[in-house]
Request: fold
Amino acid sequence: MFKFLHAADIHLDSPPVGLQQYEGAPIGEIRGATRRAFQNLVELALNEEVAFVLIAGDLYDGDWPDYNTGLFFAAQMTKLHEADIKVFIVAGNHDAASQITKRLRMPDNVKFLSVHKPETVILEDIGVAVHGQGFSSRAVTDNLSLNYPDPLRSLFNLGLLHTSLNGREGHEPYAPCSLDNLVSKNYNYWALGHVHKREVLSSDPWAFFPGNLQGRHAKETGSKGAILVMVEDGMVASAEHCDLDVVRWEVCEIDTTMAASGHDVVDLVRETIASQSDAAGGRILAVRVRLVGTSEAHGHLSSDPEHWTNQIRATVFDISNDVWIEKVVFHTKTPIDLETLLEHDDPVGGLLRTLQKMRSKNQNDVRELLKEFGDLKNKLPAEYRQLDEAIDFNDPASLTPLIEDVEQFLVPRLLERTES
Reply:
């Protein structure tokens, strides 16, 4: 009987994107999250006395800016070396051989498998064969699994592979293969990486995407960690996900339909986040708040979104100092009957009819409209393009939600001025 850990997509020292600093926000802890999660992995390996650790690609997030990333990793590997725990690693697209220019010699327990062809390492003392091949370059489009060797008889055979399989949303189609390709190898376990969402692909043989070790933004929500596998009599007896993340990302969607004011919305947010904070188990909770629904509070929210964003941030301090509001997204709608106003022969009705025509324009017309923003496009910083709300000036469809935002913002403001 022996145990091993299967992890992937650690992205050690990955630079955080879009971390907006505000007073009281635990930004320092969030920046160091990938290291602390990796320390949790090493501690788990020691506590469980595993025989070895598998890392299925993207240990690093790219070339090291300096040697500190490598020194940190070497120090953690020394701890495992002292406990006679081996570590097997394949390079992925982010840490492909062509990407990494700085290198350090690692302790003898660490083995990076070949990037030129599948390599097999045999652990005779426990009867294990580890087969794997890393990425020689960032964009590997070949089906690497086809060249993996046949299983070695009387051994527990493991396949270590960084792959998109048959494609996963949000991930480049690198080292594509099918589940049938993997099953046909007759290995006992496939340790996969590249896909950041945990997924059990098969139990015969076992094939896992463990997901990444630590969520890094609001698209990587929920618990993150590694798979602890127990092997008995040459068969997988259990495969258990272990939480190792130190920052838990969540998207908190709040239905504001019953809210009469901005303060009512803040109260709703507080109640929901308090529940999520309890479920996070003492971790830092990073939250993107999405406000939705047709609500009387819409006018308050849309008139000063900066105020209500920071009011929400202030109120969560009552819950915990370990809650960080990454962003508040306003998707509420006015309860005003816009269809009726559309028929009015006044400036508001004229505005609504103009916006309606813009929505109904064909794509060629919209492309011409987008050209009017050419100067603005050239002046926008590169960081803007990484934001979720960034306008794609090459895609006419990206203008449609903006037109609705204009409608939902302007009409209530114009009616307020008319009534006053």
